[in-house]
Amino acid sequence: MTAALARRVQVLALLLAAALLVGGCGADKSKAFRDDFRPLNAKIVALGRDVGQAVTGASGKSDRQIQEEFTALGKRTGSLRKQVDDLDPPADLKDDKQDLVAAMGDAEKSLNQIAAAAKKGDPDAARRATIELVAASDDLRSSRRRLARESATSG
Fold first, then answer.
1. Banded pLDDT at 7 (limits 50, 70, 90)
2. pTM of this prediction?
């Protein structure tokens, strides 16, 4: 084998090895993201149930109880939003992750607005914030479902 041919074989072998490594990293990244997202997904679902219960049960509570409950739900939403934002998804899931983070931010804002309205004793502001929460929750639910579905099939 000539020196030029040997050099080409070496270059091809290096390129092939690099391609295999890059291909393997994509699958590893997808699996790592899926493994990291799965427990957060379950926490987001549980949070949604808790928010729904808080909204439906608010009419029998004092303003102070509503304020405390929705402040806690807002903090929980913010914490989960940050955890989702800290995930490193594969390239094909980055937009889905950002959609979920944005929807969680909107829900957090609405929850905090409900708490603030309860603190002020302002039922009109609470109603407006609840309407915003419903819209944010719809976006959050569809974003979460899409990301859960896509992360389960990626890789």
1. low
2. 0.80
